[in-house]
Specification:
316 residues; alpha/beta; TIM Barrel; eight-stranded parallel sheet; two-stranded antiparallel ribbon; 14% strand
Length: 316
């Protein structure tokens, strides 16, 4: 049975699908987005995409999701492609899938989702439940094959990765991988990277969170595994550090005119990173994020300077 909330949500999507408020999109001065190559295939992807946790997920649970439609349109109309989601991100996957179909963007989007049916306190996944969750993901996006499915947080790799390998062999999934945003799990992540035929990993990486750069990112380069970079803003941590502070003038040398561009360009400059996926629910922030993916990226000397700057700022 459809609830009143669902009725309001999907009615709003349907009525807004054919139009977009004129204030949503701004051209990025015709600049071409920087792209990176997926090592296993040679396919190129724009280096800045969109995540769907945090604020995106919060808005997806509300009655009015029109802002998310504008965010996704802003992504696609300005050269972006990658949208990262997961069934565990509340209504994000379902709502975004509805939007993408309504705005006829299923061929534009690089749809990256996840699978994880392991319940809290358990170590094992029910294969039937995992397959059912994956089938719901197919229904949400209306796209077969799905571009990328990853085992979320390394959960029961033997069961869930086996299913993904079958789906890839059948041609229903183009790329497979796994994710982790917990440093203590990096040794296991490295083991999976070495032992499983994966195309992608997803890890946390930010100017003040460089743990993955010690072992995981170099290993991804060595093994030819693409990397989705998560939480480049440290969720809210980096915003607290720079609150009320003006941008240094020297950041304009590599095209960082806002703090968001500063943070994203730092992450994107690491050669192992394929796509940075900051989450947002505001079109103006989406455009700001995309602007980090054009022009110059900081060199190693500049990246060290960026690190020193952020480390000099106390956490509020």
């Amino acid at each position: 049975m459809i609830t009143r909330r669902d009725y309001l949500k999907y009615s709003a999507l349907a009525s807004a699908a054919s139009t977009l408020q004129s204030s949503v999109l701004w051209a990025l001065d015709g600049e071409t987005p920087i792209t990176r190559t997926i090592p296993s295939s040679g396919e190129e992807l724009p280096i800045v995409g969109l995540g769907s946790s945090a604020t995106f997920s919060s808005v997806a649970r509300s009655d009015d999701v029109s802002a998310l439609q504008d965010v996704l349109r802003t992504l696609f109309e300005n050269g972006g492609r990658v949208f990262d989601t997961a069934p565990s991100y509340g209504a994000s996957e379902e709502v975004a899938g509805t939007i993408v179909q309504k705005i006829n963007a299923t061929e534009k989007v690089f749809w990256a989702t996840k699978v994880n049916v392991v319940e809290r306190g358990s170590d094992s996944a029910n294969p039937d439940a995992a397959r059912a969750q994956i089938e719901r993901s197919f229904q949400h996006i209306g796209k077969d094959p799905i571009d990328l499915i990853q085992v979320h947080n390394l959960a029961d790799i033997s069961t869930q990765m086996s299913i993904l390998k079958e789906l890839k062999a059948e041609g229903r999934v183009r790329y497979i991988g796994t994710t982790s945003t917990r440093t203590r799990h990096y040794p296991y992540l490295a083991k999976v990277m070495r032992e499983e035929p994966i195309d992608f990993i997803g890890v946390d990486y930010a100017v003040d969170n460089r743990e993955s750069a010690k072992t995981i990112l170099p290993l991804a380069q060595d093994l030819g595994i693409a990397v989705l970079a998560y939480v480049p803003f440290g969720r809210t941590r980096l915003w607290r550090r720079v609150a009320g502070r003006k941008m240094p003038t020297w950041t304009t040398e590599f095209g960082a005119n806002t703090w968001a561009q500063f943070f994203i360009k730092y992450v994107a400059a690491h050669p192992a990173i394929t796509v940075v996926t900051p989450a947002t629910s505001k079109p103006k922030h989406m455009l700001d994020n995309l602007a980090a993916g054009v022009g110059e990226l900081p060199d190693e000397t500049t990246r060290r300077r960026m690190e020193r700057l952020i480390e000099s700022l106390p956490l509020a």
